[in-house]
Amino acid sequence: MTTIYYGECSLDTQRYYLATTDAGLCFVGSPDQSLTEIDHFIAVDQLVLDQARLAPFVTAIQTYWTGQTTNWSVPIDLIGGTDLQRQVWTALQTIPYGQTRDYSQIAQQIGRPTAIRAVASAIGRNPLLLLIPCHRVLRKDGALGGYRGGLALKRQLLELEQNPHH
Q1: Which three-class secondary structure state does DSSP give residue 56?
Q2: CA distance 155 to 134
Q3: Which residues are catalytic?
Q4: Distances (CA, A) of 45 to 19, 73, 103
Q5: Which residues does 164 contact at the CB level (< 8 Å), separation at least 6?
């Protein structure tokens, strides 16, 4: 039975729930959503409030949010997902800060060039908003596409990464 510890992180006026295992951060919620959102991403056995345990992750996210860092140095723990989803999430982590890719490029990167819809679906199931940079994936025509955190947040993150010291 895996114990998952959770806490909150505030960015500007929005609240994000975070969750971690002993191995690393496993979930970042959407802005201002309830903690029950975690159930859509991870099978939770035991959920324990422990804000102190989440403190290093909160700090990392806040320094990214303010443009003070461009990479993540905190451990993550991908405890959910199918093999394909994990392949996609791993591929997303290779997109450099400030750059974007399209869905077909990710499909090619994982060796499944015709699986564009499956790749898009896997991106939508990303449990680690912000840390696994699904916001860096655009449609082939350059349009934003979808984003679990909302298109306004996706646009804001892309702008932050284009101008990190705003």
Answers
A1: helix
A2: 12
A3: 134
A4: 13, 27, 33
A5: 67, 70, 97, 98
* DSSP structure string for 80-134: S--HHHHHHHHHHTTSPTT--EEHHHHHHHTT-TT-HHHHHHHHHT-SBTTTS-G
- Cβ atoms of residues 103 and 66 within 8 Å: no
- β-partners of residue 15 are 10
Tokens 């804001």: give the residue.
156
- pLDDT, tens digit, for every residue of 115-126? 999 999 999 999
pLDDT for the residue numbered 45:
86
Which pair of structure tokens corresponds to residue 141?
A: 């025509």
CA distances from 166 to 68, 124, 126, 150, 156 (A): 10, 28, 27, 21, 11
Among positive and negative, which fits the CA dihedral 32, 34, 37, 38?
positive
Take residue 43 and report the two structure tokens written for it. 């099978």
Average pLDDT over residues 7-23: 96
In this structure, the number of other CB atoms found within 10 A of the CB of residue 93 comes to 12
Per the CB < 8 A criterion, the answer to whether 101 and 136 are in contact is: yes
- Provide mean pLDDT across the span 132-137: 97
